[in-house]
Amino acid sequence: MKIFTTIAIGLSLMSCNGTSSMHAQKGKTMQKVEYTEERRLNKDFDSKEIFALSTMDEVTNLYNKLQDPQFKRSAPIPIIEAGESLLVVKPKASSATDYSDIKIESIQNDEKNIIVKYKKIENWEYKEAKQTHPVLLLKIKSSPKNLILEKIK
Q1: Cβ atoms within 10 Å of 79's Cβ, excluding its own
Q2: CA 31, CA 109: separation in Å to the nearest integer?
């Protein structure tokens, strides 16, 4: 019985090694990227599905685009410090009646890329207002060169 218990404990300790923030994907080492959600909205504007802003001028210009003229004051503009970026995630709607929001499942990086995995989720507010352009602003402590957006079903 002691041998079985010792083997079981040993196997569980070995399996814990894979629970760190790094894991292998297709032969590459992926590391989890920590992020904070700065803003969530629904707004149609011309842009890529995902891009990064690394200067305050870029962030201010984006917030000017996102400003709703119906309100006198704009949303608070987040401060971007050296080594930080603001990711803008704005996936294209799959149809004119796709009133879903987005949920970030993970953000990971390897040597060259930052990969953002997201999932579409229901949002009754977007459905009532017939809004089809979810936008998510995320702050990360990195200055990405290449961004990849992956939809998870």
Answers
A1: 10
A2: 5
Greatest Cα pair distance, the chain, in angstroms, is 72
The one-digit pLDDT tens for each residue of the chain (153 residues) are 444 333 333 434 333 333 333 444 455 688 999 999 999 998 988 999 999 999 999 999 999 999 888 887 878 999 999 999 999 999 987 776 778 899 999 999 988 899 999 999 888 888 888 888 899 999 999 888 899 999 998
Cα separation, 133 vs 44, whole angstroms? 6
Q: Of the candidates 93, 91, 92, 77, which has an alpha carbon nearest to the alpha carbon of residue 139? A: 77
Q: Torsion over CA of 63, 68, 72 and 74, rounded to 10 degrees?
A: -30
